[in-house]
Design brief:
The chain has 259 residues and is α+β, with helices and mostly antiparallel strands. The chain has 12 helices and 4 strands. Helix 4 crosses helix 6. It is globular and about 50 Å long. The relative contact order is 0.14.
Length: 259
């Protein structure tokens, strides 16, 4: 791997937002210091981490004294700041397509993945804890919009309309992914790119979470794409950082099938 120049990545499980910069670093061959934060224990809102990232969000990265946050912007920083295999195509139209997909994922599709995941996994995981402990943990969250999101997740306050809209968006997103991957090997072009890293880190669980919608019969292009990415050595290295079996169990079948 190339010199890290003192890169430290603060992350939770190597999926979703945390997985995006981590997989980019590993694909580029950039050595980094891993600092695991247990999101379910609210490590990201404790004073020692807030001293590093006052927003209290994960992931975050430090490089040569600079703090970087926002996972997609971090991916682009890694691509531009370090040598190694290019994660962006050369053709301007393909580069536009990569950026189109990343914007679509960040603003439209991944928030819906997140809402569903929070409602069925994160909320129930922490809801049984001491009520006063939970209230204190929520009160420590610096960003008001994140406090609202955590309250909804912990106390099961997402409305039926909100969950229905997220479900609709995910189903539509699956259709768009299948169509796009029927036109080219990867999302932006026939080259693996940041758009694929972005999407894979949220979409890898679709075959296990929504088997009626994502399977070899209905979505052969998505399944081909998922397996092709799961086959990459950097993905296997990334998932070695997992500590939560429930997440790792969703990617193990893909990795085994891709072997």
């Amino acid at each position: 791997m190339s010199s890290s120049n003192d890169v430290t990545l603060y992350h939770w499980e190597p999926n979703a937002n945390s997985g995006k910069p981590m997989l980019t670093l590993i694909e580029k061959g950039v050595a980094f210091n891993s600092h695991y934060l247990d999101l379910l224990s609210f490590d990201q809102h404790k004073p020692d981490y807030l001293a590093i990232n006052p927003m209290g969000t994960i992931p975050a990265m430090t490089h040569s004294g600079r703090l970087l946050n926002e996972s997609t912007a971090m991916m682009e920083y890694v691509e531009e700041a370090f040598p190694g295999p290019s994660m962006m195509p050369e053709d301007p139209v393909d580069r536009w397509r990569v950026r189109w997909w990343m914007k679509y994922l960040d603003q439209w599709l991944c928030p819906s993945f997140s809402m569903i995941g929070w409602s069925i996994f994160i909320g129930p995981q922490v809801r049984a804890r001491d009520p006063e402990e939970l209230k204190a943990a929520i009160d420590r969250i610096p960003l008001p919009e994140r406090r609202t999101a955590w309250r909804k997740a912990i106390y099961g306050l997402f409305s039926e309309a909100e969950l229905a809209e997220s479900t609709r968006r995910v189903k539509l997103g699956i259709t768009k992914l299948e169509e796009a991957l029927g036109q080219r090997a990867y999302l932006g072009s026939d080259q693996y790119s940041l758009a694929d890293i972005n999407c894979f880190n949220s979409a890898y669980g679709l075959p296990s979470m929504q088997p009626d919608d994502v399977n070899d019969a209905k979505t052969p292009n998505i399944m081909r794409w998922l397996r092709a990415i799961a086959r990459r050595p950097a993905v296997r290295e990334t998932w070695a950082y997992s500590r939560v079996p429930r997440f790792a169990e969703r990617i193990i079948p893909l990795i085994e099938e891709a072997a």
